[in-house]
Amino acid sequence: MSPIKFFSLVVACLCGATLCLAAPTPDKPVAVRVASYNVEFGKSTTPEQIGEMFKPYKLDIIGFDEAPDGDWTARVGKVLGMQYSFVGKISSANHKDKFKTILSRTPLEGAEEYKLSGRGWNPASVVRATTTIEGISFAFYSLHICKSGASDGHAHFLATKVLPKEATERVIVVGDYNNNIGDAAMKTIEGAGFSATWGDLQIDVSKEFTYNAQNPKKNLGVIDHILFNNLSNGEVTGGGIIELEKPLSDHKPIWAEITFPRKLTKVKGS
């Protein structure tokens, strides 16, 4: 065999091996890295500062609440290389610049907003969109709701009127719930087939807080949460509360990595 033919054969074998190594495994789970942040209408920071803060987490999708209107969310995305965003039209309690938004690394589809009715300040809302990551579709919700009971607030409306209509098999719901884990309102959402990431992370939320980051003596505990539907068979493989030396808002940002199997099996009791 001539040296040229031998060299060509070696190159072809190496290329073939590289392609085999690079090819995705059909049964490999999909890890989705998400975050949620109530930014208090950007009062204490810039979108560029928030983008820099989130850089180390290599996020796929972020839900903001109390976010300014306009290109604020897109400016965060520019820093992070996340070019797809959706900004809702309903500002919480009709205050200025308290919108719910979504920022994504992958294209968003079916973006919409649902007005939520219930006790307390109004209006409240949740924005929703789907995105596809590694060939798998996810529905993502970002909300800001009022503290309430089991059946008289925004949480009940979300659990009984909005989430039951979701057709996507894998669902993530993030935001400022204004309720602690264990409250009746959170139990209502959990009763609709959702789990908070704190359990898998083995974080005792009774000893932590996400509000008030700027005045810890007046903290209300952990009221920001990331939930996912039980039928997705998701497993939380990372995450927590992001502790900043200098708070950028009155809330602390939270994040999670949730790993989803490609093939779903029925979850008992869901």
Describe this structure in words.
With 270 residues, this protein is an alpha+beta fold. The protein has a single domain, classed as Endonuclease/exonuclease/phosphatase (Deoxyribonuclease I, Chain A). The chain contains 6 helices and 12 strands. It has a 6-stranded mixed β-sheet with strand order 3-4-2-1-12-11. Helix 2 packs parallel to helix 3. It is globular, with a radius of gyration of 21 Å. The N and C termini lie far apart (64 Å).
Q: Provide the succession of SSEs.
A: HEHEHEEEEEHEHEHEEE
- Overall pLDDT: 92
CATH class: Alpha Beta
Would you report the number of β strands?
12
Based on helices, strands and strand pairing, what is the structural class? alpha+beta
Q: Total domains, how many?
A: 1
Low-pLDDT sequence parts:
none
Number of helices: 6
User: What's the CATH topology name?
Assistant: Deoxyribonuclease I, Chain A
Query: What kind of sheet is the major sheet?
Result: 6 strands, mixed
Helix content: 10-25%
Give a short synopsis of this structure.
The protein is 22% helix and 31% strand.
Task: Please render the helix and strand layout as text.
Layout: H1 3-22, E1 30-38, H2 47-54, E2 61-67, H3 72-80, E3 84-87, E4 99-104, E5 108-116, E6 124-133, E7 136-144, H4 154-162, E8 171-176, H5 184-191, E9 194-196, H6 197-201, E10 224-229, E11 235-241, E12 254-260
Helix pairs in contact: 2-3, 4-5
